[in-house]
Amino acid sequence: MVGRDGELGELLAGLDDAMSGRGRLFLLAGDPGIGKSRLADEAAAQARDRGFKVAWGRCWEAGGAPAYWPWVQSLRACVRGLDGEELQAHLGAGAPFVAQIVAEVAEILPDVRPPPPMGAEGGRFRLFDAVATFLRNAGAGQPLMLVLDDLHAVPGCPAGVTGARLIWPWSSGERRCFPSLAWLM
Ligand SMILES: Nc1ncnc2c1ncn2[C@@H]1O[C@H](COP(=O)(O)OP(=O)(O)O)[C@@H](O)[C@H]1O
Ligand SMILES: [Mg+2]
Asked: Is residue 11 a part of any domain in this protein?
């Protein structure tokens, strides 16, 4: 990779922070072709070398994707490889909510019941909380790096985000507010 030493250095410092329990959030923004994906690929490769699990989600530009699609993909990558006991421990009481959007949860934990009926806003809040809890617990065992690609394709994306990747190194002890990122979904 040519250049980008400064940007890559910042991302790698973020990995170090995540390893020591302080998760970081990076937004890579710029014109198409400027090198956002390449930079994220390089950071992800180095994260893997440091023992991170890297989970990718890509926004779908052509329409028709299920709700929460980039999160569904990255959560799938986090669920993959866990046995039933580990998955249940990481999900805790949030299992019914995460299972609503990640079908693989019910495959591994067939006894998970649908969540109780509640209003749309309440259900969304419980889902965000369940996902945050899952990521926090999963990150306690192995540090996580989430990469959400092509955010400009998200409906409701703020004006000015013409092309972006969100890189989210995450590890134990981290508490972040998912609802503040609701527009990503
Ligand atoms: N720093 C770099 N050094 C060498 N090639 C690069 C670099 N950054 C990007 N490229 C190449 O340029 C092309 C476009 O980069 P890409 O990361 O896909 O852009 P973006 O994601 O911003 O649209 C790709 O073929 C990529 O491999
Ligand atoms: Mg790209």
From this structure: no
- Compute the mean pLDDT over every residue in the chain, rounded to the nearest whole number: 83
Give the tens place of pLDDT for each residue, 52-79. Answer: 999 988 888 787 788 888 899 999 999 9
Residue 6 lies in a domain: no
- How far away, in angstroms, is 36 Cα from ligand 2 center? 6
Q: The tokens 């079908």 sit on which residue?
A: 103
Point out the ligand 1 atom lying closest to the alpha carbon of residue 34: 22
Q: Is residue 105 part of a domain?
A: yes
User: Which pTM does this prediction carry?
Assistant: 0.82
Q: Considering every ligand atom shown, identify the ligand nearest to the alpha carbon of residue 33 and give its number.
A: 1
Strands 53-58 and 144-149: parallel
| Full domain range(s) for residue 152 | 22-184
Q: What's the gap in Å between 27 CA and the centre of ligand 1?
A: 16
Ligand 2 ion: nearby residues, β-carbon < 5 Å: 37
Q: How many domains does the chain have?
A: 1
Q: Is residue 148 part of a domain?
A: yes
